[in-house]
Hints:
About 40% of the residues lie in helices and about 15% in strands. The protein is an alpha/beta fold. The chain has one domain (about 1-255): TIM Barrel (Alpha-Beta Barrel), CATH 3.20.20.370.
Amino acid sequence: MKKYAFKIIAICLAIFVFTPLMQVYGAEYYWYCKRNSEHRQPESDSNFTFLEEYGGVYVDKKYGDNSEEKVIYLTFDVGYENGNVAKILDVMKEEGVRGSFFILENVINRNPDLVLRMASENHLVCNHTMNHKNLVGKSEEVVKKEILGLEKKYEELTGKKMAKFFRPPEGTFDENLLKTVQSLGYKTVFWSFAYADWDNKAQMSEEAAMKKIMDNLHNGEIMLLHPTSETNAKIMKRLIVELKNQGYRFATLDEL
Length: 256
């Protein structure tokens, strides 16, 4: 009986501790949106209704399905350099296209010249945290350290202010994270299109990647790409030229 009594007490304690934690930190979510095959803007999950309340965005609704002006946002999550990031920057410079690069501390430490180049070529350099850790359930102090720490290192390197746009590592978030991010003056930016481009050992062919991207194209799109991808580096010029041919203008996140 004592054994079962201890079990009941343990369960009750777990409920007692866990319930307030859920109330404080809320549910953990992983960002996704519902694609369609008609080149319309994808819809977000109904569980994400709080997103806009805290300044979150995943698509530019000003340029909706019926808008005459066609706009697209190229955004890149940069964790390191392997030669392909520089190649993508080369193409963007050649084509006169600006984008938004979400960087980590690792890039500042190991490739400061690359970060300086992003800034000097008028791309937006944005915040992807210091260490790419899941910040769901973390204290406000920890979140601020990850975000403000990166901001400080960027400003020390470039002498410029970091663009106030934040993308949560792995797209994992909860309501409190978005609330803290907003309190720091940042807008949380998700995406309306991404594809499996991050694994350097499992890269799509150029044709498959182009088809995936073009099949899901829509107005106001916030496209997430990983610039370490060899495939992305190879198709970048072709992609930009094709988007221009279709009448798209390349915007940066400060237009949101």
